């Protein structure tokens, strides 16, 4: 158990019909074989990568009018995922609030000022950051990240679903930066 894995591919916002998946030009452009993003999420969760995190998402614009007409409203993205595999029971299928927060120590070479866990968890050195139970588990699990973070709190008190405040949240009155949705 343990560790993280990066995976990049082209994804679609819907399942493509068989004739588009077999279209030579679309396949050659990496669009015909694009997996529906929710099917990818289900697949990785089924094999133990419970909480896939997006690192980067870029839209793919289909400029050829003939291909665009074939694809209709289908939207494509180049996405890099970060997948964590932790021991059974460490990650939940939703982001749950246990009142935990993390503090980045600033000890990762090249990331002394801040560290980005994914596209919406950027932790500044020494600044407390509210996290869901899954993020806390990823940061404190005995993998390479654990020595670079301090996680305060445990799962003894549950406060419901973790609020999705987004990356631009402001500091609360107690000096803790609200976290982001997982």
Alpha-carbon Rg, integer: 19 Å
Mean pLDDT: 89
At CATH level 3, the topology of the largest domain is Ribosomal Protein L9, domain 1
Strand segment tally: 9
Structural class: alpha+beta
Describe this protein's structure:
It is a single chain. With 182 residues, the protein is of the alpha+beta class. It folds into two domains: 4-84, no CATH class; 90-182, Ribosomal Protein L9, domain 1. Helix content is 19%, strand content 27%. It has helices spanning 18-21, 24-28, 37-46, 65-71, 133-140, and strands at 4-12, 35-36, 53-60, 76-84, 100-104, 114-118, 121-124, 129-131, 149-152. The strands form three sheets. It has a four-stranded mixed sheet with strand order 2-1-4-3. The protein has a three-stranded antiparallel sheet with strand order 8-5-9. A hairpin with a 2-residue loop joins β6 and β7 (121-124). The longest helix is centred in the first third of the chain and has 10 residues, at 37-46. The chain is elongated. It starts with a strand and ends in a 30-residue tail after the last strand. Residues 166-178 have low confidence and may be disordered. InterPro entries: SAM-dependent_MTases_sf (IPR029063).
Structure at a glance:
By secondary structure, this protein is of the alpha+beta class.
Task: Quickly list its features.
4-stranded mixed sheet, 3-stranded antiparallel sheet, alpha+beta, 182 residues, 2 domains, 9 strands, single chain, 5 helices, Ribosomal Protein L9, domain 1
